[in-house]
Specification:
Blueprint: H1 3-11, H2 18-35, H3 41-63, H4 95-106, H5 111-119
Helix pairs in contact: 2-3
């Protein structure tokens, strides 16, 4: 989910309720925080954008007489992120490259195994 998709769905009338719009917008922030390292620039920008979006949603609700949610519940399937950094991931001034390497490491991607597989002629149909 991304903001352009939310806008497209909104303009094309694919949302039945305001809550669907609000939930999709929150999904953007949840996904961003899930797939980016805590403390990286993207994560920080996401947090600021999430706060801004929540304030705007509250203003919208108040202006249109919509009820404010009393308790926010975590979406099912999402994990609470740990603030501990993995010991084997180095953070340097080249945040982009390190973030990509860290993401690959979290997903279990092994570049050397991939090279060996490609050299052996392994192919995959997608």
């Amino acid at each position: 989910m991304d903001l352009a998709t939310c806008k497209e769905k909104l303009l094309s009338g694919k949302y039945a309720t305001y809550e669907e719009v609000f939930n999709d917008i929150q999904l953007i922030w949840d996904n961003c925080k899930l797939y980016n390292m805590i403390g990286c620039e993207i994560y920080k920008v996401c947090e600021r954008m999430e706060k801004t979006a929540k304030r705007q949603v509250q203003k919208f609700r108040a202006a249109h007489g919509l009820p404010q949610p009393s308790v926010q519940t975590a979406q099912s399937g999402l994990r609470k992120r740990s603030t501990a950094k993995p010991e084997n991931i180095r953070i340097s001034s080249n945040q982009g490259r390190d973030s990509a390497a860290a993401a690959s490491a979290r997903r279990g991607y092994n570049q050397e195994e991939s090279k060996q597989s490609a050299a052996a002629g392994d192919t995959y149909d997608y």
